Amino acid sequence: MIQFAGDTTEQQVWDMWKTVFGDSDDYMQLYFKYKYRNENTLIYIEDDKAVSSLQMLSYKFTFCGEVIPVQYLSGVCTLPEYRGKGYARELLLKSFEVAIERGIPLVILVPQEDWLLSFYTKFGFALAFDSGAEQLPPLKKIIDDNQVDLYNAYKEFDSLFRNKDMAVQKSFQDFQAIAEEAALFNYPPKKNLRGMARIINSELLLDLFAAMYCDKAFTVSLKDEILKNNDSRFTVNQSIISKDSSIIIQPLLEFDIRDFTQAIMGYHTSEKAAPVNTLFPEKTPVMNYMLE
């Protein structure tokens, strides 16, 4: 049975996290202080206890000139003795339902191991963020340069990403957590993270894309084996999109939801064949400092 966590199950989620990930108490106290919320935690109950869980953390994301809400999946785990029963699968599918109910058009995550790439691909996720080759500006220097005025340090940090399209944005509270985590681990160097994305509401994202690129005209036919609301044909013409399947404006593009995710986020689109490489401008999606 799937349910949201509550005060009586929060400790079970903590214990499960410790069992599966082995993080220190100091880190977990920081995470639970800043990020954990019962209403954003799904758990699978068996034998009268939580045996599998995931966190649905709220972030903002710059997308085609607008700021949209995204859901970041964190701490997806199952107790060892309950694995192989499909509980994580059920929680992931439920998290998509929650995203739809909350009006969140995009879900993102950071796969911690390579084998998880193929696991999440089964659920419509696509690789959309590359690992950084260069280190990010040192966080300690940003804080020290602002004489330990954390809000001014946040403004400097925020300026690095605020005007960048396809970037996960951080609130001041997020930055407080980032700063505490960095201090906890003696300010390790950081790079952009490899990450995946899963479109929940293709129509909304396509509408934002069309509004930004008003010169684009095409028809896109989407296939999504999980979320049928995405399984549609859309026509884009001079910043207006239509869901009328009888209208076709060439070129007609056929995508599964994974390929469409990469296209609309501009992920290595210059390497794609025509007309994808001309219709979808290349971007460099960015995700970092996720308390990973």
Overview of this structure, please?
By secondary structure, this protein is α+β, with helices and mostly antiparallel strands. Among the domains are: 2-104, Gcn5-related N-acetyltransferase (GNAT) (Aminopeptidase, 3-Layer(aba) Sandwich), CATH 3.40.630; 139-190, no CATH class. Helices cover 33% and strands 25% of the residues. The protein contains 10 helices and 12 strands. The protein has helices spanning 10-21, 25-34, 87-101, 115-121, 139-145, 150-159, 172-184, 202-212, 257-264, 276-279, and strands at 2-4, 41-46, 49-63, 66-78, 106-109, 126-129, 167-169, 195-199, 217-223, 233-237, 240-242, 252-256. Helix 2 packs antiparallel against helix 7 and helix 5 (139-145) packs across helix 6.
Structure summary:
The protein is an alpha+beta fold and 292 residues long.
The residue fraction in helices comes out at: 25-40%
Distance between the termini: 28 Å
Indicate the low-confidence ranges by residue numbers.
none
Q: What general form does the structure show? A: globular
By helix and strand content, what is the structural category? alpha+beta
CATH hierarchy: architecture of the domain at 2-104: 3-Layer(aba) Sandwich
Spell the H/E element sequence: EHHEEEHEHEHHEHEHEEEEHH
CATH topology of the domain at 2-104: Aminopeptidase
